[in-house]
Amino acid sequence: MTDWWCEHAWLGGDAVEPGVMISVDDGRITSIRSGAAAVGASNRLSGIVIPGMGNAHSHAFHRALRARTQRDRGSFWTWRDLMYRAADRLDPERYRALARGVYAEMALAGITSVGEFHYLHHDAGGRRYADPNAMGHALIDGATDAGLRLTLLDTCYLSSAPDGTPLNDGPQQRFGDGSGARWAERVEALHQQVKRKDVLIGAALHSVRGVPVEHMPAVVEWAEAHAAPLHVHSSEQTAEIEQCIAAHGRTPTAVLKDAGVLGARTTAVHATHLTAEDIGDLDATATGVCFCPTTERDLGDGIGPAPALLETNGLFSLGSDSHAVIDLFEEARAVELDERLAREQRGIIGASTLLHAATVGGQHALGWTDAGLLEAGARADFVAVDLNSVRTVGGGATPEAVVFAASACDVTDVVIDGKIVVADRRHVRIDVAKELQSAIAELMT
Ligand SMILES: [Zn+2]
Question: pTM (2 decimals)?
Answer without folding.
Answer: 0.97
